[in-house]
Amino acid sequence: MDDSRIIDLFLERSEQAIKELSAKYGKLAQVVCANILRNESDAEECVNDSLLNTWNAIPPAKPVSLSAFFIDIARKKALDRYRYNSAERRNSNYEVALDELEECLKGEGTPSEECEAKALTEAIDRFLGKLKKQDRIMFVSRYYLSDPIPVIARNTGLKESVVSVRLHRTREKLRTYLRKEDLI
User: Of residues 139 and 99, which shows the higher confidence score?
Assistant: First the structure.
């Protein structure tokens, strides 16, 4: 079933909408949540919570991209669960990925105002738009979907060392780009 029809089912308040959404994007949401949490049962619970949150969000929301809307909800649920589960623990795959990215975002201070955060987001979007497709896919896989380097290597057909180097170089380019934009 296409996304517009699933959204219509949500707008009609048909429970079939949840079944169709789960069938179409449930596995992807499970992978995203599992990448962050490293726990299948927690990931499954986050996906189920995300289905409910999507039910509660549509209407009034009418997303342009159902997959992005649902995966964003699932990712946020997983991040909330991750923070809850690991208030004191460190060195998970997700924590390592965030630490890598944080290195190129460090500056005098952190963006605390909403407009600064929006400017940073827009700059990162522009930066990603200038990357080669494979570099953009690796960046998003690592820092949005929290894929471990071996998974990215397998998906791209590259060696892990090549993926690591290219991610490092992309972070350096991002740092340089953000400096030029006066965002760090």
Answer: 139
For 26-38, how does the pLDDT look when each residue is reduced to its tens digit (9 = 90+)?
999 999 999 888 8
Query: The CATH number of 93-180 is which of 3.40.50.150, 1.10.10.10, 3.40.1160.10, 1.20.81.30?
Result: 1.10.10.10
Q: What is the pLDDT of residues 155-181, one digit of tens each?
A: 999 999 999 999 999 999 998 988 888
Domain range 3-85, CATH class:
mainly alpha
Angle of the 133-143 helix axis to the 160-180 helix axis, nearest 10 = 90
pTM: 0.60
Helices (H) and strands (E) in the chain, counts: 9, 0
Residues 179, 61: Cα–Cα separation, whole Å:
36
Residue 167 tokens read as 């991610």
Q: State the number of CA atoms in the 13 A half-sphere of 15 facing the CB.
A: 0
Quick one: DSSP state of residue 39? -
Q: Give the CB-side neighbour count of residue 134, counting CA atoms within 13 A.
A: 10
Q: Domains of the chain: which residue ranges?
A: 3-85, 93-180
